Amino acid sequence: MIFTPASVAALQSRLLEDLLRLAPEVVLVGAIVGLLTLRILSPKLPLGTVALAAALAACVALAGPRLGLWPRPADGPAFTGLLHLDAFAHQLRAVLVGFLLLLVAVTRLTGIPDADDGADFYALAFGAVLGMMLMTTASHFLTVFLAVEMASLPGYVLAGFLKGRRNAGEAAMKYAVFGAAASGVMLYGISLLAVSGGATMAGTGTVPLVGWLFVSVGVMFKLGVVPLHFWLPDVLEGAPAEAAALLATASKVGAVGLAARLLTVAPTDDAARWGMVAVAAASMTFGNLLAFRQTNLKRLLAYSTIAHAGTMLMALSTRQATDSLAVYLAAYALMNLGAFATVAFVRDATGSEEVTALRGLGRRSPLVAVGFAACVASLLGLPPFAGFAGKFLAYRDTYAAGQSFLDAQPALGAAYLTLLAVGVLNQVLSAGYYLKLLRVAFFDDPTPVETPERGGGLLLLVAALLVVLGLSWGQL
């Protein structure tokens, strides 16, 4: 682009409008700067409360047009085409800022981070969510890579946030090494595509298959699907439950948003569909089978996220399931956050993150147990919770894709219907370890340990939101 006085004036005239359209992101940037500045100027200030207010302000900024605070900006390109705003991006951004608000509320109840490390933790968490929000709106390969890195780099630090613990340091090291390798492969793929087809993602020219393959490596790593899932169990086990919730949940939302945007311009050949179908089936099956063997709650939830990532990829492979994905991701953010929050509450009370720490939770802390049960039931996909609606819509779209291909491409149509059968079978398999958690929590004898006294109200709020979304998902 050649800059002239006229073009600069045009950019300046659109700058305020573009900033207004990205008001939540602007709030998060201001919150990061403010938190780090306040740490220097007022070390004794309760930064957790400041972070909670900032997360709430980001929610208000996103809902501003709907609340009538300012006119609703038009959808379309922003910042000279570097970003693109549409309905799907708005939905995923809403999921992310809502998740951030609940996550900060969880940290206020658990005490992690403490007062000394609060500014660092919240600045990193806000930065990661900011990158994930940009991933859902990126429409240029430059912003794709910057958004992925912005979401990844804070995660490397958060994974090892508990200093002095060997598994925390190991988690951070593994995540950083594997993440850097995936980013390098992705950047090489972007360079191939930029050389052959231009840096924007609007072109329809021929692009090297290897370029798209390398780009998909970075997206699959963030999504955590087979065979790029290997980092998840160790990283989530070593990270504090509060940070693990962010790494296992919000990163999936950003990755799905980016994948959906890339699929609108990627080659639509059958090989890509076959590959996505195979990876989705492998991820669902592998994640559910390995979850059976886990005794650590965070490792179990890590394999659960791999299985759920397979279901997300199943919906993505149809290339027409953005509405289904919006519901699924909203449900996933709520139920996974509730599950990890329960791990944090139980850890604070018992000092353990093993499945056995849940023994007798229903009698020791009924409110926490009921909220946890609602999250587990939603993860399993039971009505009336939102997890059922999300999985039902994903299965519906997969069935429709199979039917649409049966006449012209019988093999591909049969592959989609087989994938649907694999998904239903995995639904049954997952009941084995999800119901085990409920059995331990409600039917095993209580252990002589402290009772989680905090978090019951927040988990009941999450449970109520899961029911509301499960009954009125059409509104989303």
Layout of SSEs?
Blueprint lengths: L4 H17 L1 H19 L5 H21 L8 E3 L4 E3 L1 H24 L7 H18 L5 H19 L6 H32 L11 H15 L7 H8 L2 H23 L6 H22 L5 H21 L4 H29 L10 H4 L1 H15 L5 H21 L3 H33 L13 H16 L5
Antiparallel strand pairs: 1-2
Helix pairs in contact: 2-3, 2-5, 3-4, 3-5, 4-5, 4-10, 4-13, 5-6, 5-10, 6-7, 6-10, 7-8, 7-9, 8-10, 9-10, 9-12, 10-12, 10-13, 11-12, 11-17, 12-13, 12-16, 12-17, 13-15, 13-16, 13-18, 15-17, 15-18, 16-17, 16-18
Shape: globular
Number of beta strands: 2
Oligomer: single chain
Question: What structural category do the secondary elements indicate?
Answer: mainly alpha
Name the helix and strand elements from N-terminus to C-terminus, one letter apiece. HHHEEHHHHHHHHHHHHHHH
| Percent helix | over 70%
* β-strand amount: under 5%
Radius of gyration: 22 Å
How far apart, in Å, are the first and last alpha carbons? 39 Å
The parts where pLDDT drops under 50 for at least 5 residues are none
Number of helical segments? Answer: 18
User: Averaged pLDDT, please?
Assistant: 88
Largest sheet: 2 strands, antiparallel
Strand adjacency order, main sheet: 1-2
Describe the structure.
With 476 residues, this protein is mainly alpha-helical. It has a domain at 268-476. 75% of the residues lie in helices and 1% in strands. It has 18 helices and two strands. It has helices at 5-21, 23-41, 47-67, 87-110, 118-135, 141-159, 166-197, 209-223, 231-238, 241-263, 270-291, 297-317, 322-350, 361-364, 366-380, 386-406, 410-442, 456-471; strands at 76-78, 83-85. Strands 1-2 form a two-stranded antiparallel sheet. Helix 10 packs antiparallel against helix 13 and helix 12 (297-317) runs antiparallel to helix 13 (322-350). The longest helix is centred in the last third of the chain and has 33 residues, at 410-442.
